[in-house]
Amino acid sequence: MTATPAHAEPAAAPVKAVLLGFKREALWIAIFGFFSNLLMLTPTLYMMQVFDRVMLSNSEYTLAALSLLALLLFLVLGFAEWARSRLLVRAGTRFDLLMQRHVFRASFDAKLRNTASASPQALNDLTQLRQFLTGNGVYAAIDTPWVLVFAGVLYLIHPWLGYAAVVFVLITLAVALIGNKVMASRHAKVQAAQIQSSNYLSGKLRNAETIEAFGMLADLRRRWLSIHDQHGLHQAHVHEGSHRLQATIKYVQYAQQSLVLALGALLAIDGHITAGAMLACNALMGNALRPIGLVVQSWSQFVESRAAYGRLSTLLQDHPPRSGRTDVAELNGQISLRGLVAKAPGREQPILKGLDLDFRAGEVVAIAGPSGAGKSTLARCLLGIWPDAEGQVLLDGTPIEQWSREAIGPHLGYLPQDIELFDGTIAENIARFEDGQETQVIEAAKRTGIHDMVLHMPRGYDTPMGEAGSTLSGGQRQRIGLARAILGDPLVVVLDEPNANLDDVGEAALIRTVADLKARGRTVFMIVHQPNLLRVADRLLVLDNGRVAQFAAIRVEAPAPKETATP
Q1: Is the pLDDT confidence value at 75 over 90?
Q2: Can you give the pTM of this predicted structure?
Q3: Measuring CA to CA, which residue among 538, 497, 551 is closest to residue 379?
């Protein structure tokens, strides 16, 4: 048994693989981009024709014909811009739909295994990447090669104009690259500080009641403010640098356009070009520098998206899709442990140290031992959900991780030590959020003795946990969790301190539930701290420091016979 599920599908560069599936959309976006950029020459050509042809011929018909042709080309230009924008939005939406299921699953797996990539940031990274793919970043990538086209047109007007365009574009690009290289490290610091601040705050909000009870809010706020202030400081440095870079780029662009106009005027004075060409070269220079401006504007988004791409790729590669066997119909529920070792990060000694045990199908096993002996860890290992385990947990002779969790999950019941009920109705929580389980929900509630309790809720089984959660006691939550654990009559049921919050009535109902499971031939594991539950158990397993201290049958002594009076 290892931390990586068996039969996992390979997922090398998963984000890249999804992006490569958009080749057709990319081709059409490039085609529309071609027409869009090509038609950007329309104002230049129109200006040249008006100044060099219409103004000399004084022909109104020529002016009207040129104007109608320009309006038609502008209409085609607008359609091309609209079409590629629509394609980008649709491609971004489809990319999100294709990725969100994998990212959600991988984020869950990372959290389950307590890895470094376990963070809610993954879904934010997906949003960041989608926004970049549908924003100015893609336009900049498509339009940047057209810088050479516009520079070539300027060269055709006059070589000096072409050379000037190349020089000015290189200067603008150099300023942008140097500035953004300086900004990259600042953006990385902002991202790290933002994630740290968000994780710290969300972690504290989950324990709001404890914070309020102990009056810890002021101290925790002071610590959060120190983290938040660092984020604000890094953010201020980024904004300051971005504004300085944009101001520099703007100065360079305006200066270059003026210099190009001056060069065009000089060439016109010398008779090398016409007056129309002089004005047109200024517009062409603006078109040549426009993609560079888009690169500058979208650079910070590109840096953030590249980091998001790297994090998503790492997450999906470390946690590939899981698959496994689905043939669970013939299982009996026999559990065996072979060399089971359970470890935890930051702990030198393993929690469980080489357990070799066999549990018969249909028996009830009580697990006891001092605190820290490894009881709850063993409970999770029995279900195959402990992240760092070696050895094997065999279900009917087959390692439990070889089954698909979707297939084996309904055949397992689990009542954790910390009851977690989810946002939804009571019925949905008991049904494990699977549709069409109304009959099984009521049956599980009756078997655990909570049917009448649920009916007295404001809306019965349809009571949202948001309403019921504040009124439910710890024992009621535990009994609802027990009903969820036995839903559908699972083969193996693991109960971690199931009577921790129960009163006498609840404990009696728990004992009846375990006896019912035993009568049905289900394998039950109970972590117990009190002897009351031992009367329904077949064997007792005592753990001490991760090892088996005792594993034997439980003797239930028969009551002594009553003495009868001698006649």
Answers
A1: yes
A2: 0.66
A3: 497
